[in-house]
Amino acid sequence: MSAQESCLSLVKYFLFVFNLFFFVLGGLIFCFGTWILIDKTSFVSFVGLSFVPLQTWSKVLAVSGVLTMALALLGCVGALKELRCLLGLYFGMLLLLFATQITLGILISTQRIRLERRVQELVLQTIHSYRANPDETAAEESWDYAQFQLRCCGWHSPRDWISARTLRGNHSEELLVPCSCYNSTATNDSSGFDKLFFSQLSRLGPRARLRQTADLCALPARAHIYREGCAQSLRKWLHNNLISIVGICLGVGLVELGFMTLSIFLCRNLDHVYNRLARYR
């Protein structure tokens, strides 16, 4: 076997093994998303959180898993069977994915101010219509989750919740905020945010109350809540994690470039191997 044939065999099995790994990973992601979609109760009890918009994220995970499996399957079969059409399709899909990521990065960089304004509008609209429609709570649950993770309240400050119609007191002008604004560290309470939405509201004091729906939890703004708006918290998070985000994006891009290079190298050199084998026959 010549050096060129040995190199092509190495590239072929390298592509096959790594795409097989991504195929299994995509299958796990698909099963995970399907599990959330079918058996939401078990997932909630396993994770311990009950306020994540599971319906939306389960579909995103399932679709991502299917796409990952399809792309990896093209790479596996194309490399193992040495099929130029599949290798070309695999290269084209990777190139399209890479170009989409580059385009999104450029748009985010150049349209940053407009994007910030749009996000601010969506957040303030979500706050204004918070729990107004019990059948459409995905955006509200996402914002609750963001406030809890970023340790913030409102977009600019907790006073943004003045516009929330469902949190206005009927007999008092006192400002109410969702329980996702609750600062458990201020009272050394680490028992978990998920319990706030259900039966254990007593630790917030007698003024914590439920309104309109069973999962609407509100407490006074003068209680132990986060005083910082999420806009500032989000900027801090991006600043603190900028190196990690850039590193992950560069890593993903380099992996895609590597796979594209190997696939096109294998695709272009298959003819030479076939011609050499034909001469030996």
Short description:
With 281 residues, the protein is mainly α.
Features:
3-stranded antiparallel sheet, mainly alpha, elongated, 281 residues, single chain
General description of the model:
It is a multi-pass membrane protein. This is Tetraspanin. The chain crosses the membrane at residues 13-38, 59-80, 86-108, 242-266. Strand 2 (209-210) and strand 3 form a beta hairpin. This protein has a 3-stranded antiparallel β-sheet, with no helix packed on it. The protein has 281 residues and is mainly α. The protein is built from 8 helices and 3 strands; from the N terminus they run ααααααβββαα. The longest helix is centred in the C-terminal third of the chain and has 39 residues, at 242-280. The chain is elongated, with a radius of gyration of 26 Å. It has helices spanning 3-38, 40-47, 54-81, 84-110, 112-128, 138-150, 230-240, 242-280; strands at residues 176-178, 209-210, 217-220. 64% of the residues lie in helices and 3% in strands. The relative contact order is 0.12.
